[in-house]
Design goal:
Number of strands: 0
Distance between the termini: 93 Å
Largest sheet: none
Oligomer: single chain
Strand content: under 5%
Shape: extended
Number of domains: 2
Helix content: over 70%
Structural class: mainly alpha
Number of helices: 8
Length: about 180
């Protein structure tokens, strides 16, 4: 048992340790998150996603209507619905709507220390270079993946063609196989 005169020092040390741990895990302030979002160009990245999502949405509409013959009225209705859904998506994913979501998610995910360190990184020359080069990086990665995947898909297609050829052959009756 600790000596009574060391008890205050022990309690003080424990209190300092607890407060240091609490400060380390403190949630970031909105100002800290805003700094990170600005440094990481979150708003422009969100804006860049919009056209991609609209193209995907248009592709989905085309797939939904590909096997159907639509009258002029029906086609006009589909066009109206597609335009309305694009507008709803644009509004829902606008910076004004998404900013509070970013703040909440970053606050729940990162500590104040982490947000400050990330903001400092993205404000640095290296962080800016990373942001500038990320689109080229992604494009180069996609090209590299295609080089890996296409031969694999070709091999699978050859294998599937073999299976479909086997399936197309008539079954040999057992009586012909065994004498």
């Amino acid at each position: 048992m600790p000596c009574p005169r060391f008890l205050p020092k022990l309690l003080l040390a424990a209190g300092l340790l607890v407060s240091a741990l609490a400060a380390q895990a403190a949630p970031p302030t909105d100002a800290d998150i805003e700094r990170l979002l600005k440094a990481s160009r979150a708003q422009s990245m969100l804006a860049a996603i919009g056209p991609q999502l609209e193209a995907l949405q248009q592709q989905q509409f085309q797939q939904l209507t590909a096997d159907r013959t639509l009258s002029a009225e029906q086609q006009a209705e589909v066009t109206r619905i597609r335009a309305r859904s694009s507008e709803v998506m644009r509004q829902s994913l606008s910076w004004e709507q998404m900013r509070p979501v970013y703040l909440e998610v970053y606050r729940e995910t990162f500590t104040s220390e982490e947000v400050k360190a990330m903001a400092k990184f993205y404000e640095s020359r290296t962080g800016k270079a990373m942001l500038d080069k990320t689109p080229a990086l992604m494009q180069n990665l996609m090209a590299a993946m295609q080089k890996k995947v296409i031969p694999m898909l070709d091999a699978l297609k050859t294998e599937l063609d073999g299976v479909s050829t086997e399936a197309a052959k008539p079954a040999v009756p057992k009586s012909e196989v065994e004498p």
